[in-house]
Design brief:
Largest sheet: 7 strands, parallel
Strand order of the largest sheet: 1-4-9-12-15-18-21
Shape: globular
Order of helices and strands: EEEEEEEEEEEEEEEEEEEEE
Strand content: over 45%
Number of strands: 21
Distance between the termini: 48 Å
Length: 191
């Protein structure tokens, strides 16, 4: 078995465009004999990227060989744009998860759902000690902060606040399948 591990430290990823994951597109190697990829990011600032579909800042993809395990500690995902998941969109299964910790996800915009974070049906994300703030979704969209029809595991201190639909003064922080939330919190803040 072959491994494809990638470590990215202390970087700024800005002003890119793509169909998916304009800042970072994480996908596992599809070649036979390779185990799923492990991508570890530390202290990255992913800003001002635009995806014409999902994941303006980050998109974690799933393919027939499995899914990349993506971990990001410290930094921010800010001012990114996409149809779904202006900041982050994940297609990761719970066997290889997307883990985001000690991170700020702010000022991202989705022209549909999930301005900050978007989790597809049956997929998984883990958030720990994360601030999700000042993100926007469309006027007809949901989950300006977090939109999930998958599973979201929350740990540590989570602040999801000041997220809005376009042209609205009413906060629209979280849209979530209520059967798919796992809480292991120290504190949770939502205004």
């Amino acid at each position: 078995t072959y491994y494809t591990d990638v470590h990215i430290n202390n970087v700024q990823i800005t002003e890119n465009s793509s169909v998916y994951g304009a800042g970072i597109y994480a996908e596992s190697v599809t070649k036979t004999g390779f185990s799923p990829s492990v991508i570890t990011v530390f202290n990255a600032f992913i800003e001002r990227n635009t995806a014409s579909q999902n994941g303006g800042g980050l998109y974690v993809d799933y393919n027939t060989n499995g899914c990349a395990k993506y971990t990001q500690d410290f930094g921010s995902i800010s001012y990114n744009n996409a149809v779904n998941g202006g900041g982050v969109a994940t297609d990761a299964t719970d066997t290889n998860v997307t883990e985001l910790s000690d991170l700020v996800i702010k000022n991202n915009t989705a022209s549909s759902n999930g301005g900050g974070v978007y989790v597809k049906t049956g997929r998984f994300v883990q958030l720990e000690d994360v601030i999700i703030s000042k993100n926007k979704c469309s006027a007809s969209g949901d989950g300006a902060g977090i939109y999930s029809v998958g599973t979201v595991k929350l740990g540590g201190e989570i602040d999801v606040s000041d997220n809005y639909r376009e042209n609205s003064a009413v906060q629209n922080n979280i849209f979530m399948n209520p059967n798919q939330i796992v809480l292991n919190l120290i504190q949770y803040y939502q205004q």
